Queue: 2 jobs
Job 1
Amino acid sequence: MPRFLNAEQIDHWERYGYAVLSDFVAPAVVGALRARVDEIVSKYVEEGVPDGAATVFSTTEQTHAQDTWFLESADVVRPFFENGAFDSNGHQVVPMELALNKLGHAIHDLDPVFGPFSRNDAMAALADDLGFVEPLLLQSMVIFKPPRIGSEVVCHCDHSFLWTEPQTVVGFWFALDNATVENGCMWAIPGGHTKGPRTRFRKVGHGTTTDLIDETPYDMGDLVPLEVEAGTCIAFHGCLPHWSAPNTSDQPRLAYTLHLIDGTAEYLSDNWLQRSSNLPLRGFGPLPEAR
Ligand code: FE2
């Protein structure tokens, strides 16, 4: 099979833990994905948000960690909100387009637009180039990062949250807006993937806990901004430390992310994200007819 990535991109991936693929998504497809997000947001405005959605999502405080809204979102498409989107009585206090933090976590399996996009040939070829043997599409998110309100995502690596033995998780991050330092683009520590994860976030009982593996803090001075244009895909290794700042601009910074694991590895039973038997994980192939 001819390689999708060129030698330079493969070298960059191995050396630095990520690859920036400009023009990965055609402008018309970016437009279709953005239109689909607008449609979902409009539905929330017209019909109201689902029961329980006043839950606040904040990775800075991790107050969501004990929340069943989060823990039970593995096989649904569910909205999560910015801090301050609701008052103490659960009333929404900012407009919907500024209130949403993200949608998660089974958009790739359930959405009529993001589903086919997540299983296109380029995606499968990219996974193949990155060494996947039995790729499984584990989770997906639409990340809003609204202007002036979009919050920080603290420096972390995704393996800490989606642990397999051995480590296999890889993230694909798609810019649906131009991402800049001002509107909260991704930052990463080049080469940081060669060091192990500092923490492990896992389920314990009905809640969660974070195990400290290495207490050395990330050196935030090592982070470099990954400013990219809409349509770019950034593929990043599961051990790559990454971070994004609050959106301090007047511009939105919409993104879509997809995380893959390899079915040849063991997905730990105390990871927070556990699919029900109604929606088993799938690779890039078509839906089996038996289902
Ligand atoms: Fe992440």
Job 2
Amino acid sequence: MTTVLLTGAAGYIGSHTWLALQAAGFSVVGLDDFSNSSPEVLERLRELGGRRPVFERASVTDAAALDAVFARHRIDAVVHFAAFKAVGESAAQPLAYYANNVGGLVGTCQAMQRHGVKTLVFSSSATVYGEPKYLPYDEAHPLSAMNVYGRTKLFGEQILRDLEASDPAWKIAWLRYFNPVGAHESGRIGEDPRGVPNNLMPYVTQVAVGRREFLQVFGGDYDTPDGTGVRDYLHVMDLAEGHVAALRYLLDHGASITTNLGTGQGTSVLQLVQAFERASGRPIPYRIVDRRPGDLPAFWADPTLARERLGWRTRRDLDAMCADSWRWQSANPQGYA
Ligand code: UD1
């Protein structure tokens, strides 16, 4: 059985990928320092998986702790999620972002190297494409960063390219995520941001349960069909299954891969709000306010490469994303608290 170490395993994407890997027959060791997640996730994973999750509480910036984890478990591959992801915060705390996102990646790879593990799936982001030169973004689109968070992902990608060039035994998947939303269909795990949500869907779901009064729609005058921002939202379980497909690709083909994970469909803020209202039966009051500085008007993925090389495509539509986000938030109005 192949054993996979998941860093950032208690986070939103990590926890869903944990279930997807188990469902695909992998053995999982989760690692997290709970700096932006809750230990309650482990309880929910136990319930859903029917067994106690194998878990290590440690930071990816702690080399000794990582060594101990690799010594205790026979790890075959690593899926590296552990990172911070709030754009505004990254500008205020650049060193924390570089230490965790870049330092943590380097530390994880060094630990892997010390223990002879050279198969890695890396959480990158569509943010590495920067200002669109054309749309949809394909993997050949030029790269650039628009903020500190984006630079940590861009530098992370480059560090891994250098590593792969230094030693072709490394097999790496660079996964560029578009906008993950939704939750596991059980409604037992989902997205639980701390403080005021930065991202659209958790803000909408918190309005729906009455934790926030109304949604602020950032900009109504973009050059898009209804004037609001357009993104490529994908269901987090499709994204999780994309990791399984990427890992299988690395293990079966012995080759690295760089790929988008998105649907190929653009959806505007107001389209998402309407879909959510239908799925939840709750009205989402909103006000159109100024654009958020640094936001792009519109972007979406060209998902062809993932389909052709990984045999992966998204299966859950916008209605399912909304229904599952709602199931999670309505059953857990305060998240894991
Ligand atoms: C954001 C980050 C991106 C990061 C991703 C990770 C920015 C500029 N981009 O992506 O780098 O990889 O999160 O989670 O922060 N919106 C509202 N009201 C809200 C929140 C969002 O109208 O309260 C709009 C935004 O203007 C945008 C869309 O909803 O048009 C999606 O926003 P969001 O969920 O924050 O995702 P991104 O901006 O695409």
